[in-house]
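Worked problem 6 (solution included).
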Amino acid sequence: MNWILFPVVIQVFVTCVRASDKVFWYESPAADGMNEALPIGNGRIGGLVYGHPEKERINMNDITLWTGDDNPTQDYHGPGFGDYQTLGSLVVDLPDHKVNTQYKRALDIGDAVTTVQYESHGVQYKRDYFVSHVSQVLVGRLTADKGKAYTGRIELQDAHKVAVHAVDNTIAVDGKLVNGLRFAWKVLAQHTGGSLKVNGTVIEFNGCDALTLIVSAGTDYVFDDSKKFKSGEDPAVHVNDWVTKASIKSYESLRTEHLSDFHSLFNRVDVDLGQSSAQQTALSTDKRKVEAVATFDPDFEEMFFQFGRYLMISSSRTSLPANLQGLWNDNNTPAWHSDYHTNINAQMNYWPPETVNLAECHLPLFNMIRSQLNVWRKCTRASKDLLTPLGKHVTKGVAVSSHNIYGGMGGLDGDKTNSAWYAQHFWEHYAFGMDKTYLKDVAYPYLKEVSELWDELLKTVTNGTKQQLGKLVVPHGWSPEHGPHEDGCSYNQEIVWDLYTNYVKAADVLGVDKEFRDRVAGERDRLLWPGI
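Solution. The predicted structure is:
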């Protein structure tokens, strides 16, 4: 299935979600790649479920697993920028299940649970998967309508060729990336009936009635530039703790706490566009998508609105914010590094949280930005692409281009107003929540610092029409993916206007920095307006 974070944004607020169909379902397993696999996640740990009966594969992610560093050369294509990495795959081999009928795989976005069902050799099989934010584990439950139905093996296929260890009913992986970031992940298998044993680096099970799989992962990434964003601590300690604590709970308890946590966010909002026909709702999702092109399918449109909210909850909780692929990644060299692409993509991911009642999901973006400011300041001061009208390096403010999780960015010769566009998100969170403590401690300092950058950089027009002379423009600007560099691109002008407007409002709310506030207001009024 193809997915982006928010296919559509509609502002509708109610106290609970209707019990209408919120299930994407298919009649065949997912193909290789990311387009058809079903995504589950808790904001940090992600899984792509492929749903093959004879060989289940769940591609695993931890959103903090990145190569690269602070990239002082600002080479977007060099090793210092790095790439978002995959952990690898959890694989469950069930060779006797190759022949099967009545196949169905589904993602219930109302519960954040994905399911695989089929019949093989007269037995009805079912697998349920979810990722618990409460317990910080992915949970899988394999059941059947007859006893002794499960025989096969479990393995972890690590994507970084590090040591894999299997002991008792667990398989564990721990290692380091080339940049020194430590990582670990682990699966624990519980069985009802039959037997289970370790054979080399795999777990073999025979004649089991049911299986529960508990998986967790972690790295030593921290929001601390003084430590180069790495704590040096062994992430296996936390991973073992999460897995052990989850294993003490029953599957029913793990599922109940997951549903309660997820529903507390998801069930805040509903949208009603009408009622689809019985013929429409009877179709599998891939077929329904084709039919919806020609015939309006209101429930289907509602599902895609809610799918955007589902992806936001699943990829942006208390760790890093959603990246270019949200949380999910199936290889170690993803397109555009799966980075934080700041010429629209990172911001576009975060347009909806406030309007779809997921304000908490906005916070990881602010936490990441604030943690990287010291690195960005150094790059800003040193950049030859950010010179004042007098040809001097800037002394204040902060700029950023597309970046990784260590503060490393690409060059600043392209879109210079990205940090100002980020500033819009800081203000929007205040505008919806009206939390003055947040405004004072979090939003205002960032708004002011970015405004200080443009106070130094804006250029006065000295050669132009009568309407242009004396106006202020962004020098050597660029509208992303549209044409050459030039002074006063409409895109850049509008973003700086928005930054200045929000800064003035923030200063007025807090009653601070009147001299600088008035200076910014005056510069805003002198900005050259877009023309045709």
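Discussion: The CA atoms of residues 23 and 230 lie 39 Å apart.
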